[in-house]
Structure formats: structure tokens, C-alpha cells
Amino acid sequence: MNAAAIAPLHARTARVFAFAYEVHPPATYLIVAASWSFSLMTLLQSSRGEIRLDPAAYLVGAIFFLILLYLRALDEIKDLEYDKLYNPSRPLVRGAVSVGEVWSLAALTAVVVLLLSASLGATLVLFAAIQMAYGIGLLVLERSVVVFRRAILLNLFVTFPVSAALNFYVLSYLTARGLAPGLQTALPIVAAHIGIFLHLEFGRKLKWPEHTSLGENGYVLALGVRGAVATCVLFGALACSLATWVQLQNGARWFAALPWLAMLPSILGLRRFFTGRERSPNLKAFFGAAMVVFFLLNIALAFASAAKGGKSVAIRTLESTADANNIDPRRHTHSGIHIRS
Q1: What average pLDDT does this structure show over 77-102?
Q2: Strand extents, DSSP E, the chain
Q3: Rounded mean pLDDT of the chain?
Q4: Which domains does the chain have, with CATH numbers?
């Protein structure tokens, strides 16, 4: 391949990387993906009396990061016409990257997700494939059905499962390895993580009506300011209540209420919202911080619960797939963290 052919390819690659860096900042989303996935893995396992993190657990975190990137790329394509009117600074709108290049990024990401999931089991490949196909279906639906674009609550009802499915990806991963608790225990944990995500979703989009443009969509316009704020608070309270209940079931006492500390950034965000009416502040950082703090507290409390319950903490060697199939781990050399009775 000569230099004349390489130059355009290099330029396209640079545009795609710049786009990904802008809409999916690696540092931020690595923290989100890692804390979200490990919050689920540790909390679900602590409820059954052990916490085991083998090398495959870190792969699950990487898959979270990539699926979030894939969904972000699809959202940029899906929202293009809307962004032309209300978000002119978005990279697709200003021509920093083409639609075809964003599709290329999504396709490449999807292939990597499927390959990584294949190393975890056929069930997870199918799960990831369905989740990503659902994302494309949402894009087609929003482009073809006008009411779907204009009714934000209907839009949320239909689009939310594609994000909520990440929680069930972890549950499926643990189930395949015999590490998941029963559904009666697992569902409140999954519901807590869904609740904190919806807390972020409603909180980050709080905006005073006078700062919205004609035709702009938003939860405040659909529910009113009080309704949108109340819904945001309700989901945050639901998440913290369920996390506290799980900790109480694990034998925690006073520190079972620590998940409520995650609401401190949200309180600051709501204060900024109500005191900054004249400038319509961006609240995503506040509610995003609340979600990450919630995840980190879950991880810390899961390990604390294991230690408090008299379980030993040790670094041992095991092969995740071999261990899942009851193969003697002494034949393998991959390191992992194992906490059990």
C-alpha cells in the first residue's frame, strides 16, 4: 500500500479515535465500567457467602466499557437530526467525523465484544449479540416512528432495557460459573443498580423549562420540575434502600446504611439546580459521581461483609474456565482473588 493510500486511512482512523475520545472519555468510562461491573460481581457473590474474582472478571469490566462505547456510537447516529437543532457542538453535527466512520467504530466494537464474550461462554455471546442488535433496532425505530422521538417517557421505556441488560450480563456470567445467588437474592441487587442508573438518567437531564428550545425534549417538560425532581430522588432512594437491605441480609449493622452516602453528590447537584435557575447548570457530573460512589461503596461493603462474617481473604491461583468446570486449579497458573468461608 503506497503513501497516497495510507494517508486517507490514517486520517479516518484519527477522526474515529478523536470521536471516541470525545463522546466516551476513556478515563471516565473505565471508572464507570469497572465500578459498575465489580459492584455487581462482589455484591452478588457476597450474598452467597463468597467472593471470587478470577481473571475473567476483569474481562467482564472491559466488555462493559466496550458495550457502553458501542451504545454511545449508536446514540450519536440516532440523535443526529435532533442534535442539529439543539446540540450543534456534537462531533457528527459539526462534521468532525462522518456517519459512516461512526458506523465503522460501532461494527468494530461489536466484533471485539463478541470475541471477548466467546471466551466467557456461548450464552454470553448470544446475550451480547441480542443486546447490540436491540440497540440497532432502537435506532431504526426512532427514525421511523415520530411519536417515539417526541415522547421522552415512551422513549425511555423502550430504550432503557439496552442499558439495564448490562446488569443481567454480569448475572449470566456468574450463573455460568456457579457463583450467582438465587433469583430472590439477585433481583434486589440488580434492581438497586437499575435504580441508581435511572437516578443518573433523570438527574443529568434536569433543566428549567425557560432554558429549553421549542421542540426540545426533556423530563421536566413531560413531568414538570417537581415531577422530574421527585422521580430522580425516588430512584436514588430506591437504589440506596435496596443496597441497605442487601447489606442487612448479609449481617451488616450500622454500616448497612453507608450506600446512602452516595446521595451527597446528588444533593449538591440538586442544590446547584435550584440555585442556578438563571444559567441552567450542567448536572451530569454530580449525578454521575453519585452513581460511581454508590458502586464503590457496594464493593467496599461486600468485602467488609465477607471479612466480618469470618471468611478468609487470600490470593490463590486458579483458571476461571477450569475452575467453573471443576478442573483441578493446581494445574493452572492464572492469579485470582478468592474470599470464602
Answers
A1: 91
A2: 51-53, 312-317, 335-340
A3: 86
A4: 1-180 (1.10.357.140), 182-301 (1.20.120)
